[in-house]
Structure formats: C-alpha cells, structure tokens
Specification:
Number of strands: 0
Largest sheet: none
Distance between the termini: 36 Å
Strand content: under 5%
Helix content: over 70%
Order of helices and strands: HHHHHHH
Number of helices: 7
Length: 142
C-alpha cells in the first residue's frame, strides 16, 4: 500500500512539474474595466443599437430579426463545417490534461480521432504518458 501511495505521489508531483510552465504561460493578463474585449462593441454602441431597434416599426423589427436568424444559422453551419474554430479556455484544458487526458484531447480536437485513441492508450498504460501527450496536443505541438 505504501509503495502504491509513493508511486502515486511521485507521478502527481512529476505531472505538476511538467504542467506548471504550461499553466504559467497561459495565464491571462488582467483587463481594465473600461477596456472592451477585442471583437466586442462597447456599452454605448450596444445601447445606441437597442434604442434604434426599439424605434423601428413592427415590420422592420420582424425583418431585422429574420435577417439575424439567417446570419446565426449561417454562423452555426460555418462552425460545424470547420470554417470557424471555436476557442476553448486554455487553462481549463490544461487542468483536464492532468485529470482526464482523453477528455482534454477530445475537447481540443472536437472529434474522436486517432489522437483521442492514442491518448486513451497512453493514459491506460501509466497515466503520465497520457498527460504529457494531452499537453502536447493542447499546445498543438503534435
């Protein structure tokens, strides 16, 4: 029992030693409250757009809603086709690499492929090779 516990502790320590630089590299820089996220409009622009939308008559509102639904449908089709890549939180993937390596590989790849099956195989062998391989996949080194 003591030998198993020691092996487990050494494995966990080794995994955290390898993962610490990756976690530190993916740490985000704090953002000021007055700045906006890239690609996101500021609050004044959103309020002006809402005010303009509310001032429209019923027919124009319906046509704009219909047009927005069409754009959303096209966006979802593009995401499904792989034209637009969704971003997954890097820190979450790193944590999942340590806890459940195959799940992290699946979330990164967004499909069950050879990388996923190789991750399962490596995880079942000794867990640590699965963690290392999952980290390599998440950081797109493999």
């Amino acid at each position: 029992m003591k030998k198993c516990f020691t092996y487990l502790m050494v494995t966990l320590f080794t995994a955290f030693v390898f993962a610490a630089p990756a976690i530190a590299a993916s740490a985000s820089v704090p953002v000021r409250a007055d700045s906006t996220t890239p690609g996101q409009p500021d609050r004044a622009t959103v309020n002006a757009a809402l005010k303009e939308f509310k001032s429209l008559d019923r027919k124009d509102r319906k046509s704009r809603i219909k047009e927005s639904r069409k754009w959303l449908k096209e966006y979802r089709a593009d995401v499904k086709a792989g034209k637009i890549k969704r971003e997954t939180d890097q820190v979450l993937l790193i944590i999942l690499c340590i806890l459940l390596p195959p799940l992290a590989v699946y979330l990164k790849e967004e499909e069950i492929n050879t990388k996923f099956w190789l991750s399962i195989l490596l995880t079942l062998l000794f867990w640590l090779p699965g963690v290392i391989y999952a980290l390599l996949v998440v950081f797109e080194e493999v």
